[in-house]
Design brief:
about 120 residues, about 10% helix, about 40% strand, Jelly Rolls, mainly beta, 7-stranded mixed β-sheet, globular
């Protein structure tokens, strides 16, 4: 099933094509080995409260979400080969093309929901 991510606070689509990573193997792999993250695409990793960008080829935007989808923390243009913070209370992470969060004026406290596409 394909999902899309919607910012209910700002009433806009954050990502039209969201891939979910729920298994250990998919969460571990994440975006490693991916050449780019196309515009409108995202990876939703759950459960997850911290990330790394080892072996990645590009920067990403990251939104850490609580179990209701509220944004607790954001990373803008998080570069490759870095270890991100542990965000207490985060239940999942939404990884997006760098620049997406700023372009959409996404802010901490915004509510993200996932709907069937």
């Amino acid at each position: 099933m394909h999902l899309r991510a919607i910012n209910k606070t700002r009433n806009c689509i954050v990502a039209q094509e969201v891939t979910e990573a729920k298994s250990f193997a998919k969460r571990l792999k994440g975006l490693m080995g991916t050449r780019e993250l196309p515009v409108g695409s995202a990876l939703h990793i759950l459960p997850c409260n911290s990330i790394h960008s080892f072996f990645m080829r590009f920067a990403i935007d990251v939104a850490f979400l609580d179990k209701q989808g509220k944004i607790l923390h954001m990373l803008h243009a998080f570069p490759p080969w870095r270890l991100g913070p542990v965000v207490w209370g985060a239940r999942s992470v939404l990884e997006l093309r760098a620049g997406t969060l700023e372009f959409l004026k996404t802010q901490m406290g915004d509510w993200i929901v996932f709907e069937a596409n």
